[in-house]
Structures are given as structure tokens and as C-alpha cells.
Design goal:
Radius of gyration of chain B: 13 Å
Number of strands of chain A: 11
Number of helices of chain A: 0
Order of helices and strands of chain A: EEEEEEEEEEE
Helix content of chain A: under 10%
Oligomer: heterodimer
Strand content of chain A: over 45%
Shape of chain A: globular
Helix content of chain B: under 10%
Number of helices of chain B: 0
Distance between the termini of chain A: 39 Å
Structural class of chain A: mainly beta
Order of helices and strands of chain B: EEEEEEEEEEE
Largest sheet of chain A: 7 strands, mixed
Structural class of chain B: mainly beta
Largest sheet of chain B: 7 strands, mixed
Distance between the termini of chain B: 35 Å
Chain lengths: 120, 107
């Protein structure tokens, strides 16, 4: 079955750019939408944005000015870049596949998540 | 963005209890709602999509209902492995938004 795995630095300095990659195994990145989500410590879940395998994207307006999500179909991967990070961006970052049936969408499967701490 | 409000925020219950968690949307979202279970240190797991459709492999003691603005997740007979945090998610319109979570604890 499809499995997702996040990778990237666990520590990022304030004002720098957070970069993460999600590697997909057991299936192709073609078709489906692929999302990034995050969960700050003790806080709920937040959808960051998605990329379609064609490269089209959609971002959460709360982060839109700082987010770039891209896809590399040759590597079966997609990536997140979040610029000008602050301590408020410290969170566990998840990648997930957005599946759908009719009008219903859902996130499944998810990666295991990776903790990114913003600190000098 | 659509606001999703869950209640209660925490709940203590015993094995075998019937439990209901509610989720209210700030505007109508048809039946575009999912429920997720999250255990500590793990990613959320999809339980229900389309308000009432059980994801494959999820035990039948889980059920969902509702439409418009008010939704419920019911666990008919709590099992030890069900103690976790539960989140609703509206997929009616972007940005998709989650409820704040309901932490289900052992009494």
C-alpha cells in the first residue's frame, strides 16, 4: 500500500527557510492531491496546502505569502518550503495524500510526521 | 475560513461505554466532514468520511452522522485502544479546517 515518509532538518534558525520532502512508496504520485499539514505542540491540526502532480497548488491563506509546495514526479516526491520562520512555526509537519470519492475528500494515508523546531 | 467547534474538549469514560463527540461548523458544509483519531506520537488516522461513511478497516463500533452544521461521532462500546484524541475536519471548502480536538481518557 502507499506509504509516505517526511525528511528534512529538525532544527531551523529564525528568519530562515524550512524545507521538507515527502517521499512516496508503494504508489505513484500521479493523480491525487498531496498535502502538507502541521501540528504545533499542544495545538490542533492545520492544513498548509496541496500540490497536484501537474504542479498546480493551493495554499492556506494564513501562510500563503511564505509557502511553496512543489512536486518532483521523477522522484515520486513532493516538497514544502516555508520562508521567514519564527518560533510559531515550530510543529510536527505531516505529509498526506488527499483522496476523494464524489464530493468527499479525506487525508489518507499520512506520513509519520517530523518535528521541526525553530530556534537559534 | 470555516470554524469547526468540537465538544467536549475532553471526556472521561470507561471501557464499554457509549460515547458521543459533536462538531459544529460555522456555516453549512453539507456532509463534507471527516473524523480522525490520533494517538500520542502518531499521525491522525481516518475513521469516517462524508460524515457517515466508515473507512475500510475501521471497526463498526464507530459511526458518524449529521449534515449542514451539526455532526456527531459515536463509539458504541469503548475499547481500550479507543482512548485517543479525535478531530473533525471539514472538506467543504479550502482552507480545510479541523476542530480543536476531543481528548478521550480512561475513567
Amino acid at each position: 500500500q502507499v506509504q509516505l515518509q517526511e525528511s528534512g532538518p529538525g532544527l531551523v534558525k529564525p528568519s530562515e527557510t524550512l524545507s521538507l520532502t515527502c517521499s512516496i512508496s508503494g504508489g505513484s504520485i500521479s493523480t491525487y492531491y498531496w498535502s502538507w499539514l502541521r501540528q504545533a505542540p499542544g495545538v490542533g491540526l492545520e492544513w498548509i496546502g496541496y500540490v497536484y502532480y501537474t504542479g498546480s497548488t493551493n495554499y492556506n491563506p494564513s501562510l500563503k505569502s511564505r509557502v511553496t509546495i512543489s512536486v518532483d514526479t521523477s522522484k515520486n516526491q513532493f516538497s514544502l518550503m516555508l520562508s521567514s520562520v519564527t518560533a510559531a512555526d515550530t510543529a510536527v509537519y505531516f505529509c498526506a495524500r488527499e483522496a476523494n470519492m464524489g464530493d468527499s475528500d479525506w487525508f489518507d494515508p499520512w506520513g509519520q510526521g517530523t518535528l521541526v523546531i525553530v530556534s537559534s | 475560513a470555516i470554524q469547526m467547534t468540537q465538544s467536549p474538549s475532553s471526556l472521561s469514560a470507561s471501557v464499554g461505554d457509549r460515547v458521543t463527540i459533536t462538531c459544529r461548523a460555522s456555516q453549512g458544509i453539507r456532509n463534507d466532514l471527516g473524523w480522525y483519531q490520533q494517538k500520542p506520537g502518531k499521525a491522525p488516522k481516518l475513521l469516517i468520511y462524508g460524515a457517515s461513511n466508515l473507512q475500510s478497516g475501521v471497526p463498526s463500533r464507530f459511526s458518524g452522522s449529521g449534515s449542514g452544521t451539526d455532526f456527531t461521532l459515536t463509539i458504541s462500546s469503548l475499547q481500550p485502544e479507543d482512548f485517543a484524541t479525535y478531530y473533525c475536519l471539514q472538506d467543504y471548502t479550502y482552507p480545510y479546517t479541523f476542530g480543536q480536538g476531543t481528548q478521550l481518557e480512561i475513567k
